[in-house]
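Attaching the record inline, Q. Sequence:
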Amino acid sequence: MTQTAATRTPASTAATKTAAAAATESRPRGRPSSGARERILEAALEVIKAEGYAGTSLDKVAARAGESKGLVAYHYGSKQGLVAEVARAVAETITSVVLERLDRVDDVEGIIGATADGVDRVLDDDVRLARVYFDLAAVSVVDPEIRSAIAEINEGWRAVLVERLTGAGLAAARSRVLTVMVIAGIQGLALERIERGKTAELRQARDLFVRGAVAAAS
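Structure, as predicted:
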């Protein structure tokens, strides 16, 4: 089911704005924008949310954007190129939500808890964004172009958490190890929520995870 402008959730709207910004930044300079590139990227995000990577095609994206398939290929080259840009836009949206919470804390427990809270907020706003990320992460195993985009996303996450944890007083080496643990744990919790929803067991598991990560840090 598609969303109208009136019913988009905050995360969905943020992803659209991020996608548009990414499209604008990567457009060759000197050529005025017709808005087509931004519309195509927004349409691609909505198609992938609704139908997943396997169900996405340039034809479907073109139809949703109200543009020709040839124009989609002109701007993005291939389905893989288009989807890689969508992956970056989704990741930037998730990251911006998490960073908003990280800016409020400066200790290890706060950083780990804020990271988990940020991902929860994304899932509250539009769970399909997380589904898109995990769908594309699975595809990245066999698709080099999407794998490159996912690797870029993960490196960005690692850099942010290492920087924050080091700033909270952990040694750099310890921060890197804890970052791996935190990212893996939060991804696992997100997958559990996508599959089974916000259960009492999930809430307890999240609390155990945060406490365990804090204990590991010390």
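Residues 1-33 have pLDDT under 50 and may be disordered. The longest helix spans residues 172-196.

More tomorrow.
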